[in-house]
Write a structure and sequence with these properties.
The structure is a homodimer of 221-residue chains. With 221 residues, chain A is an all-alpha fold. Chain A is 68% helix and 0% strand. Chain A has a domain at 69-205: Tetracycline Repressor, domain 2 (Orthogonal Bundle), CATH 1.10.357. In chain A, helix 4 (62-86) runs antiparallel to helix 5 (90-98), helix 4 (62-86) runs parallel beside helix 7 (120-146) and helix 7 (120-146) packs across helix 8 (155-176). Chains A and B meet through helix 6, helix 7, helix 8 and helix 9 of A and helix 6, helix 7, helix 8 and helix 9 of B. Chain A binds a DNA duplex (30 and 30 nucleotides) through residues 10-16, 19, 40-42, 50-54, 56-58, 61-62.
Chain lengths: 221, 221
DNA sequence: TAGCTTGTTATCCACTTGGACAACAACCGG
DNA sequence: CCGGTTGTTGTCCAAGTGGATAACAAGCTA
């Protein structure tokens, strides 16, 4: 009669919020692996360990589920990131923000780019997130300038530029496999140092821990 | 009895090569609109104006069709580009290569990035294409250096860097909509000029015509 | 013109998908 | 302990998918 600590008896219930969160996280995991268009209600259900009808109980439609998953990714990313950066000196913050992130993280983003033109809700969320990221990076650049460590004629424009470089480098690293993680960081750091007039090599020496994408567990290996 | 110039009578046949090409181009058009995973044999058939069984007559499977479509995009892109660049002076060639391309072109590429991790054949084609692009741009950079107009310690590395910048900027322009086409070009040209020690503004003044993506018709508007 | 090749059509099939729904069972307030 | 709320299941459905196949018809060659 002794049942295992992890109860499996039929009918065992979880609180609404708990289950919702579980479903969203599972969805996001599958999105990273199969893309927004590739996730299936049944796959999500299997991943969570429930019947696919239950997903419908929490989300009125597949679209709503996917939107919730992306929203979760965006929100939780910015929440942790902002907090993390505030505790660092400007150079470490800049290096952390620009450092290459893990694979799952970027797979979700690249998939979002690919899906956005067909999914207005996703495009809107993406644009919002992009603005938030630009704001955060702009603030970091301003801190660097204020500390007298570098210069920027237009911090917001430099923020957009560095974001573009980081994204493009991430594609070459994660998707094409043309460069490894060290080269990726070198490229981004190099542009940032030249653009902001920083001492060459200062960003790499900051020995950065990636500040973005903490919600995505490291890839399976 | 007079039939229109464009024959529509049942059973009218096209040559094998002609039809194949027609199908591949239609597929590519749909890929730009719906992504690699989103194209359906029936949609392709409708776009071409035939029955979906006919697609199977030319391509053994959906995967084979999609692979052929991507292969066509890659091949025809490089064929026209290489030719076009050889006729230009180094600065114009560099500017043309880096200039923002049309939307359809980049949608296909972004979709390929998103699909590559799940589709080995696509990943391989993408990597090959990336190498070819790197080689072409490297050669252009070398021509710039040889002409005494700029400097590069490592033309191949600079080629990878500029490719990354162009890709990242394209995402911000086409997907996020955060910048317009002029800003996009300014950002890429600016990095290129600084990286290669060119006279500032020389690339924009080259009044470049985009050298890439000629296979994709301009977006519908 | 006869006959073969092959481009083309029209159906059929097994399967998966998102969604709907009724029955069940755990929890909670009375 | 009772009754309603709600998390959960199992099952059904229509629509759409990729693929298979047989019949048809256009064009070529003999």
């Amino acid at each position: 009669m002794a049942q295992s600590a992890v109860e499996k008896r039929p009918g065992a219930r979880k609180s609404s919020d708990e289950r919702r969160d579980e479903i969203v996280r599972a969805t996001l995991r599958l999105v990273a692996a199969k893309g927004f268009a590739g996730v299936t209600l049944r796959e999500v259900a299997t991943e969570v360990g429930v019947v696919h009808g239950l997903i419908r109980h929490y989300f009125a439609s597949r679209d709503e589920l996917v939107a919730a998953a992306f929203d979760f990714a965006v929100t939780s990313e910015l929440a942790t990131d902002q907090q993390q950066l505030d505790g660092l000196d400007p150079i470490a913050a800049l290096a952390g923000w620009l450092a290459a992130t893990n694979e799952n993280h970027y797979h979700v983003w690249i998939d979002a780019w690919s899906e956005a033109p067909r999914t207005p809700a996703l495009a809107a969320a993406l644009a919002r997130h992009h603005d938030d990221c630009e704001r955060i990076l702009t603030r970091v650049i301003e801190r660097v300038v204020d500390a007298g460590l570098g210069a920027s004629a237009d911090p917001a424009a430099d923020s957009r530029l560095l974001t573009a470089v980081a994204d493009g480098v991430a594609v070459q690293h994660h998707v094409v496999g043309a460069i490894d993680v060290d080269e990726a960081n070198d490229m981004v750091f190099g542009v940032a140092e030249r653009q902001l007039g920083l001492e060459p090599g200062i960003l790499a020496r900051a020995n950065p821990v990636p500040a973005r994408g903490q919600w995505a567990e490291a890839p399976a290996r």
